[in-house]
């Protein structure tokens, strides 16, 4: 019996080993290199010179650091809040209220379009839409509605724009997860509630939301990880500007490393982010563990 | 932990050193840097980045000519080329060069950007012996590091002021006055302050929507206005200078142009290149400052031939101002270098010699003619291609007023920080005083103290 188990384990390890090798080569080794790099003054000449904790001192000395940290908190916090609220809204609307599955799926497919559009194409569409000249689509509409001068949308509302652009790409995933969760709620719970005279809002509040609480936690944490490390949309639409108004932590690491060729400094900024992400992963692990425990 | 770090680093260094030692092109000949005369067919790798492929094409054409010469001399030697042309960010291109070098696959001849890093990485061959009188005086300056020349300039692209002739006519200038403007700006009779007034006048009289425009991203074009206002960004030793007073004046002017006189659109930094090129090409903007070779893009944006474009747009150098008494235009040549570890350093140098002093000078003239730039080689500037180019024929005099700045370490960071402040100033989101203070803080944090002179 024991030997059988051991054999099964061996087979599982054998199947997993290619992925472990890939992860080691593509993630763990670069992560180790990033950690080492964070303590060097590596620049575009690619000569490794250790400079102690100088890069971390630079992070602390930079007056932009608190602004960038706050931007990151704002960007992630607001986007996550709106993502979860909209995910819930769309999931409940398309799964609970619209009983025709086909129609619900059509709507969910439309929501997926921003997510499956390549990031560069998607961002260029936003730039074209919001171009500050009268040629921009938003300005054409604005001026057709009576606006006298074209608006400089990106400069005037940079934060709103990057949140809106990110939000559209985030909605589909959470909506799909929440929809499946709503579907898995036993129908008799709804029937019992209706027999007890519960209205639709009460059903949403007292049956659907409590059943979705772990899914909500999972999506919130999962999206947080994605938002903390993803900067492509911001880079392509505002590039962190005007000034540093939309510069977030991950974008700042990119700028230092690849615009200023300060690879060591960029790695130090990344390292701080890696620590934050690792803490969040531990939280996710704890939440999942708690979820399993509650279910069992 | 310390031991682990040391081991990892040692392994990394060993790998990169080992891989760096094996550079060399695939060939069926004997190697030259071993001291032997190469024979047979040799393959040289040529790498280039961005649009102007007439630069590496000139090298390839020079190779053909050398092959003909070798054949005529009965020499058993034939040069073949392997080309790698990219269209990526210059920083990424330089990184790729260094990575390829570390893997022993560095090109033999390549277009150069971020020279200091390439020199520091040990990739550049000293070609000081190619710095001859055949070249326009001072054109090698950006390619000199510690007194040695590391790349050959292939052209002399100057950065100038573009102005729309039709707009001047519309406000009542005669053809003679319009044609005389570049000369007046070049000889000190028409100042920068007068030019700004002219931009305002053209705009106020409705001959153009905007008076003065510029690029929509970080770059060296802004340094020309900075210099016009007496600003200094490098000293005699080629060290980066942080000139607070000059920056204050420059930032004040940037702020005023967008917010007070409003000759520059406030939203210019949120505008795309296409839109700006169209604005300059169709006369929506009266004036623009940038490289002369941008004329290819501007003319293209409004579907004009070079002849039509030269009819509509005039070019002038940066004139004298209250703070600067010498008219100038900045020359920023594009160049190619030779790999320090190439197996055929002398053949690569022969290719360059063929280009600046052999029959292949015509290739440099052709390149200059194609991208609307003067040539780095005196003889090429005398050739028909350049003499009859509708744009170049009018700007030949600029070579005498051109200034070629040295290779300045840290200039990319300086330009990036400068642009961030320009963006905020034009949007009216900061003050000139605050912009100087913020930029100084960032320069102090991001550049080592020994790289910058503060004044």
Automatic annotation (TrEMBL), chain B:
Pfam families: SBP_bac_1. SUPFAM superfamilies: Periplasmic binding protein-like II (SSF53850). InterPro entries: Bact_solute-bd_prot1, SBP, SBP_1_CS. The keyword Transport applies. PROSITE patterns: PROKAR_LIPOPROTEIN (PS51257), SBP_BACTERIAL_1 (PS01037). The keyword Transport applies. Residues 1-24 form the signal peptide. Keywords: Signal, Transport. Belongs to the bacterial solute-binding protein 1 family. This is Extracellular solute-binding protein. It comes from Hydrogenoanaerobacterium saccharovorans.
